[in-house]
Write a structure and sequence with these properties.
With 130 residues, the protein is mostly beta strands. The protein has one helix at residues 75-84; strands at residues 15-19, 22-31, 35-42, 53-61, 65-70, 91-98, 104-113. The protein has one helix and seven strands, in the order E-E-E-E-E-H-E-E. The strands form two sheets. A five-stranded antiparallel sheet has the order 5-2-1-6-7, with no helix packed on it. A hairpin with a 2-residue loop joins strand 1 and strand 2. The longest helix has 10 residues, at 75-84. The termini are far apart.
Length: 130
């Protein structure tokens, strides 16, 4: 009995950060790829029975957080420096999930983003990390 081709799940550590169509850095962790929408409760005074309708409200997006990254491209830090100086430059980008062969499988796009926070690496001369 043939079982067909095996389909493995995609691994969570295979992703790229692309800003303005250029791959910028590698990170070990990415979060904040979500959106939420608060309901608006509405009731007309003449409705029977007295019930509340829920209407869709404003859409909110979380901040995208990238952790444990490394890059030899200084542009990400320079982008953050501009924001600190009050010249926040908005850019479009994507977080891209790739499979083991490097082929794109999913893409989360953002638009008009700017870096709200940057934390430098923790350095430890006695550690074994690369």
């Amino acid at each position: 009995m043939a079982t067909g081709d095996r389909v493995d799940p995609y691994r969570g550590y295979n992703f790229l950060l692309e800003i303005d169509d250029i791959s910028r850095a590698g990170f070990r962790e990415c979060s904040g790829l979500d959106s939420a929408q608060d309901p608006i409760e509405y009731r007309e005074g003449n409705e029977k029975p007295l019930t509340v309708r829920k209407l869709p409200g404003l859409v909110k997006y979380s901040n995208i957080t990238l952790k444990w990254g490394i890059s030899d491209d200084n542009e990400l830090f320079e982008w953050r420096t501009k924001a600190v100086d009050g010249e926040a430059e908005r850019k479009n980008g994507s977080v891209i999930l790739v499979d083991e062969t490097g082929e794109e499988k999913m893409r989360w796009n953002f638009r008009d983003g700017w870096p709200a926070k940057w934390t430098g690496p923790s350095l430890n001369a006695t550690g074994n990390e690369v």
